[in-house]
Design goal:
Helix content of chain B: 55-70%
Radius of gyration of chain B: 24 Å
Oligomer: heterodimer
Number of strands of chain B: 0
Number of strands of chain A: 9
Strand content of chain B: under 5%
Helix content of chain A: 40-55%
Number of helices of chain A: 12
Number of helices of chain B: 19
Strand order of the largest sheet of chain A: 2-1-5-6-7
Strand content of chain A: 5-15%
Distance between the termini of chain A: 67 Å
Distance between the termini of chain B: 16 Å
Largest sheet of chain A: 5 strands, parallel
Largest interface: A-B, 36 and 32 residues
Structural class of chain A: alpha/beta
Chain lengths: 318, 481
């Protein structure tokens, strides 16, 4: 019996070692394949609206750093780490433009205090390890494992990336939202989304979020990075819910831009908020674009950037 | 606790190491505590139901055995049956029958709102209730003697590998194993681990991957016609097989690591040539339970032909109801009962047809056709099993061959050909293994191969699980039963 135990332990340890060598090699290969390029023209930051809505394949030399439920406190640490990472004396990733989400809900106090992390935790790795941000939210062991080893559950992406197939749902950080708002109970979905993001009564400009947001603008200024703000599209049902709760978009943005103007002068604003009011089929739920909507929005963003001469015309024709 | 959770992956190795460290005479205590902990990690207060069932049947077993008269024996058995089935009825079927009564009364324009219970269905209640019942019935039939050891009997009811979804064991097989000392045996332990690995592969790589596709369609079936309905129904057949047989493999494997041998629950069911053969290969522990404790009690086939058909139909109807308190399950059970009776009635006609068409000269072709035909019949049943409502099921049935059959459109929204290829690929991989292993178990097959090949296969399966598994801790389908 003792011999059996020793034999089992010896063989078991050997098998685990071989497995770990192969697994870590595959994981590193996946991380390299899904990491952003060293020089990026456009880095999109924000929550799931960004993650689902911006497909960088259609927008010049860009990468989508959007992660579900990510607030500006976490984004600040993410950007700080991103800018701080150096390979020898050179910065590992050079960014020309920060594209920041300024949707109403991202500044709400409830959004910042949401503790839950969605199952796409593994995608944190697309933004390079986030030691500081990790301290901000409680995580389970399985979430930590997924963030350390993003290859877990992503064999499909590994195949597609290795074979250069054009059907990777998480290519360049974008996630393929396959849901259909038109198939859902709209009233229920809208109320669920509203309650998820706003407290009662809503505090639209959370001080902590705002201070970190302004810190990002400051970081951009110091690093000579241009700023582009985006208001992402929502459905008209979602807009109606905001109106129902007496949320004034105009007042909110007046206040927000008053603060922004104190630290930043040169910025571009792209407003797509009501562009898709007549196209519920572009949405996965009241405020998230699906795979159809994201393609249309991404092309729109590219056209707008070109019109504003922020992107050369011959750079990437789609 | 789910088998496909990190919680279990931490719990199991610790439990096994401690099990082999603890002296034999205390192992039952450790296993009982582990089993209760395993169950209580889901909903702690429902452990009380298991304890009630345990106490009732422990006392009933001894009382039946000690009874001097048949009348007293009958009375105690009836009390045991009533209390066990009463609990099952209250937690699982009360609302279903309450709704049914309300609907019947509505037909007669009588408005009545019978009471409904707002309780959560205790996980595994149908499984441990049936296991517990088999114990008292076996004592009543003088097949076994009751155990005087309450702790070991409690372990028989709650042994964690098979507590929540079977296999539904018999006291004759399981109880004596808890009294035996099980040493650490390299071959037995590694065989158990291999079986668990195969079970995990079936669950997280195949079943949970197919679940995404099946859910998309079956959530709103009326948005689809033709190919998506056929595809998702076919996928569900493999999803439920991999989900449940995967669970059974993990259960049997983990018990085996600790030296306990559980009965087999599946034997390549989709290779069955008839519905009666299907039921000898699918959920074997439940079908043998129904055969031993209900079908035979009703007289089996040693009765008049109409009564025999009645017996078959009743058994399948109740088997359907066992699966869930919903008309879809009742129809599913009734459909299988009908298949079997129809099969018996038409047996001689079908034999003559084989001779007439000369198909009898091509046994392999006949076998293939029979397997295909049986698979189609089983799939029709699965439509009722999976659909949310009876009207959904009838919609699917009547729209399988309507609408566009063009593959140019997206077959299922949001899913591309790579998703479908992976789904079909893993099913083919599993069925290929089944085909290779027609007369051998996967463990026997692996043992005959050189070490390098064996280890490559183990590593490949572990990597496939990690890379292609769906890790959102999807519950096992049979937990709801």
């Amino acid at each position: 019996m003792k011999e059996d135990k020793i034999k089992f332990m010896k063989k078991g340890i050997l098998l685990i070692v071989i497995f770990l060598v192969i697994f870590i090699a595959l994981n590193n290969y996946y991380v390299i394949k899904t990491s952003p390029k060293k020089n990026l023209d456009y880095a999109f930051f924000g929550d799931s609206h960004v993650r689902d809505g911006v497909n960088p394949q259609f927008i010049g030399n860009s990468f989508n750093f959007g992660v579900g439920e990510e607030n500006y406190v976490e984004i600040y640490y993410k950007i700080k780490e991103l800018l701080g990472r150096k390979l020898l004396w050179r910065r590992e990733v050079e960014i020309n433009n920060f594209v920041l989400q300024i949707d109403i809900h991202v500044f709400s106090d409830k959004f910042r205090t949401n503790k839950a992390l969605s199952i796409e935790e593994g995608h944190y790795n697309k933004a390079i390890p986030l030691i500081s941000a990790k301290k901000l939210k409680t995580r389970s062991i399985s979430q930590l494992l997924k963030s350390k080893f993003p290859i877990i559950g992503n064999g499909r992406e590994l195949i597609a990336l290795s074979l250069y197939l054009d059907i990777v749902p998480t290519k360049l950080g974008w996630t393929n939202n396959t849901e259909e708002f038109i198939l859902k109970n709209k009233e229920e979905a809208v109320s669920k989304r509203y309650n998820y993001s706003f407290s009662n009564p809503p505090n639209l400009l959370d001080n902590i979020t705002l201070s970190y947001f302004l810190k990002i603008l400051d970081l951009a200024k110091k690093n000579h990075i241009k700023i582009i703000f985006i208001k992402y599209p929502v459905t008209k049902e979602y807009d109606a819910e905001l109106i129902k709760h007496n949320i004034s978009k105009e007042d909110h943005y007046d206040l927000l831009f008053k603060e922004i103007n104190k630290v930043a002068k040169d910025y571009v604003l792209l407003d797509y908020y009501d562009d898709f009011f007549d196209h519920p089929e572009y949405f996965g739920d009241p405020d998230h674009l699906n795979y159809i909507g994201s393609q249309i929005l991404s092309k729109k963003i590219q056209e707008d950037l070109r019109e504003m001469s922020l992107m050369p015309f011959n750079e990437k024709d789609v | 606790m789910l088998f496909n959770s990190l919680h279990f992956l931490i719990f199991f190795p610790i439990a096994v190491v401690l099990y082999f460290i603890i002296p034999h005479k205390y192992r039952w205590v450790f296993l009982l505590i582990s089993s209760y902990y395993f169950y209580m990690s889901w909903k702690a207060e429902y452990i009380i139901l298991i304890i009630i069932s345990t106490l009732i049947d422990y006392i009933a077993g001894i009382q039946i055995y000690n009874s001097k008269t048949q009348r007293r024996k009958n009375l105690i058995l009836c009390l045991s049956l009533l209390s066990n089935l009463g609990l099952l009825f209250a937690f699982k079927y009360f609302n279903f029958f309450s709704d049914a009564i309300r609907e019947i009364l509505q037909v007669f324009t009588i408005q009545l709102n019978p009471m409904t219970l707002k309780v959560l269905l205790p996980v595994g209640i149908s499984f441990y209730t049936f296991q517990s019942l088999s114990y008292t019935i076996d004592i009543y039939r003088e097949k076994i003697k009751p155990t005087r050891h309450l702790g070991i009997f409690a372990l028989y009811i709650s042994f964690f590998p098979q507590l929540v979804a079977g296999p539904i064991e018999r006291a004759e097989n399981l109880l004596p194993q808890f009294f035996k000392k099980h040493n650490f045996d390299y071959k037995r332990v590694t065989d158990g681990l291999k079986l668990m690995l195969w079970g995990f592969f079936k669950k997280v790589v195949i079943a949970d991957r197919l679940n995404i596709i099946v859910n998309t369609i079956y959530r709103t079936p009326m948005d689809y016609t033709g190919i998506p309905l056929i595809l998702s129904t076919g996928f569900f057949a493999f999803q439920i097989y991999c989900d449940f047989s995967g669970y059974s493999d993990i259960a049997i494997g983990s018990a085996q690591v600790m030296g306990v041998k559980l009965m087999d629950n599946f034997n390549r069911p989709y290779f069955s040539r008839s519905i009666s053969e299907f039921w000898k290969r699918w959920h074997i522990s439940l079908s043998t339970w129904f055969k031993d404790y209900l079908y035979i009690s009703l007289g089996g086939n040693r009765v008049s032909i109409p009564r025999w058909y009645f017996n078959i139909f009743v058994v399948f109807l109740l088997s359907g109801l066992w699966h869930g308190a919903n008309w879809t399950f009742v129809i599913w059970g009734a459909l299988h009962g009908f298949y079997l009776i129809f099969g018996i009635i038409t047996k001689s006609l079908r034999d003559r047809l084989l001779v007439f068409t000369r198909l009898i000269l091509f046994p392999r072709l006949t076998k293939l056709l029979s397997i295909g035909f049986t698979f189609v019949l089983v799939n029709i049943g699965w439509i009722f099993f999976r659909a949310k409502t009876v009207s959904d099921a009838f919609y699917i049935l009547t729209h399988l061959f309507t609408g566009s059959f063009s593959f140019r459109d997206k077959i299922i929204p949001g899913l591309d050909w790579l998703d479908l290829s992976i789904a079909i690929g893993v099913i083919l991989f599993m069925e290929l293994i089944h085909l290779i292993l027609e007369h051998r178990s996967i463990r026997q097959f692996l043992d005959s191969k050189p070490l390098i090949l064996r280890w490559s296969i183990y590593l490949a399966i572990i990597l496939l699980i990690l890379l292609f598994g769906v890790f959102n801790e999807t519950q096992f389908i049979y937990f709801q039963f």
